[in-house]
Amino acid sequence: MQRNSVHFFSVKDRYFAYDINTTFCTELDSVALTIMPELLSGASGNLEKKYAHVYPTPQLHRCIKECNELLDSGYFGVGHSPYKHRIQNNVSAICLHIAHNCNLSCEYCYADTGAFGANRQLMSRHIMQKAIDFAFVHSGDFESINVGFFGGEPLLNFKLIREAVEYARNTANSLNKKVTFSMASNAVLLTPDIMDFINRENFSLLFSLDGPQKVHDRMRKTKHRKKTHAVVIKNISEYLRNYSDNFTVRGTFTRTTPNFSDQVLFLNDQGFKSVSVEPAQLVETHPHSISTHGEITRILYEYDKLADLYLKRFNKGQPLHFYHFDHCLKKLLDPKPTHTECGAGGGFIAIAPTGEIFPCFETVPEKENCIGHIDFGFDTHKRRIFQRMHADLREECRRCWIKYFCGGGCHAFNIRYNNNIKIPYKPQCEFIKYRFKLSAWILSEIMNGGERSVKILKKHLNE
To answer: Which CATH architecture best describes the domain 93-333?
Structure first.
């Protein structure tokens, strides 16, 4: 058994043990919190005698038995086998930056309000077709390809989206493969015609909405400084009412709008079934960035508040949808180690309007991240930097207890804020750790309600 493979933590007056290698987490009472470290360190005899002055003998006996059963289960204190990272060369998803331009001028935009640090432009039909051809040529044995549309604001180039869908479907049919579609949009330009099209083509959708009018309109205005909340909420609600609830609504919070629990509640109260509210990713000098210890601590307090609200709403039969708690709870219920966060540069690539290839949509602002061009193919060396990256190759991650839950964080953030793919972005690390701890507490509270409560939670997580 390896004591250093188990991390002990407390949150909201509850104690937990977490196996770093297996990602299995369990709650401990005060007796087990004493006994478990002893057993992990190799002590097995005379523990009842050693702690007889602290705990009743029957309680100690039962605790020692249960801890030993847990250690024998293979979930805790197991040896760590070296991770063998499989390089994925075949492409399963391509993100077309169909518009390097935007109709909004959001104050926290990491992409230079859609220009990505270059000339504003729309993708041409020629580049779109070559990009889709490129994806299928490099799809290998994947039976299906996902074609995503991103910006800027992709609906500025909706005509080309229509053509891309038709072209991709025809290409897939000719190769006896399948194709699916996705899109991220600020929803301002949604029309009944567009809604009908994206619903008919079964798009996976992400709409941007920062929650209440006061928060949203503070950050998300047009280039002419016009407010957008009214039109966005109208359009998304219309899509929900007339077509489908199968989409995600994503909000953003910043240093100057830190009360994001209000955003989560608002978005849930609109009837949205998939909600994600994320911290803005900005350089330290940006007026809206979250970077100092005090700012990070303020955000942790807000996550704490949201955990209370999550549990309160669950107990009332009105469970909240919040991606970061939902995701953690799923992984707590079905623990599996994750060694890398995503398939950037491997199974997933992004194509700029110029035809340049990038590892993912997040990496496009930094031109040094370019890993090839659809006319010439991949720069194998630069692509491999992203393909090979995983938690064990990052020194700080190797020392971190949460490394196999988060997989080492976002490659793009590490490069953007630390100029090094191997150095994790610290604010993100702190948020991931604390959200996990709070999720463990939420699950513990729900499990105390019995098997029925757990079944209700699983149903909620699978909605």
So the answer is: Alpha-Beta Barrel (3.20)
